[in-house]
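RECORD TYPE: protein structure
NAME: Adenosylcobinamide kinase
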Amino acid sequence: MDLNKPCISLVIGGTRSGKSKFGETLVSSYGKKILYVATSAVLDPEMSERVRRHKQDRPSDWITLETYRDFDQNLPPYGDKVEGIFVDCITLMITRLMMEKKDINWDDITQEELIKAEEDIHNEIDKLLISLKKIGKPSVLITNEVGCGIVPEHRMARDFRDIAGRINQKIAKDVMDVYWVVAGIPVKIKSSDSSTDSGKTIDVYGGV
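PREDICTED:
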């Protein structure tokens, strides 16, 4: 099996940049039956309403899977049922993986604890990427660019920023295409096409 053949795209941008809208349009071009992998947790009524609206806006043919870990077990059952996979988002996945470590005091974390925690997160990312490649369906991953702001005041926020930045680099290096979305305008910054169109803006409806 050629694990590098399946097309996996990373869409990265800031909050409310239009990255998810573009990603949904991109994955829709692969077919009607899409697996929507939601990594968020519903923690309050506002988030619950947001999730409800997202579900309502999705095409009826899309299947929703709510998970943020153990993708080697959770994704394969859907492989033969869908034409594409959409993961929204990597950043919330990282957040939940950090927050589940109840034994860590993130404000007073040791270097050894931090290294181990990040290794665990990288392992879950590896499970995701390897599973997507084995399934072999075109996939789109959404993530936030968290490194363009000021240095966070709190230790946990700084560690989160650093971990998310390294994870984004890891994924961008591994996947075939990377899109950067700013103010609703997608720009392809890494292309699998040998006649690359990197650096060109991409219309959200598919034109270059």
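COMMENT: The chain has a mean pLDDT of 90.
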